[in-house]
Amino acid sequence: MAITYTWKLTSLKKYENYQDTDHVVFQTYWKKIGTDENGVQGEFSGATPLDVTNLNTDNFVPYDQLTEETILSWIKPVVVGEYEKHVNQQIAKQIAEKANQESQVGEKEMPWIPESERYTPPDPNASEMGPSGPDSGHPTTPSI
Description:
By secondary structure, the protein is α+β, with helices and mostly antiparallel strands. The protein has a domain at 3-99. The protein has two helices and three strands. The protein has a three-stranded antiparallel beta sheet with strand order 1-2-3. The model has no long low-confidence stretch (mean pLDDT 87).
């Protein structure tokens, strides 16, 4: 099964002022999303701290110039080796679970039971009240 991965930043934490530098990002929250060839997706959410203890202002990127790609370029090198393997396994597991969904078939749902005797679970999208209005046979509340 071939899985294509995409990354997305979901949140950041920043210091308003740190070592006389404004808006210093120190924590990232991200999501890695995997999609198989059938469009089934799984995802893994992670958090990666950024070490700002020895802030180098020579290569500091000002907050208003940050892009998602820039921050992901700081995160991706951390998500490697066994950690990356774990992340990808969790995504693959979710995809497999979605692709191979199980359901239990009750006694009154077996295919050999006559249609008139089969249990049909209620439609969760159907209204409990049913139709209403002048042609439904149900009273309506008059406008005041």
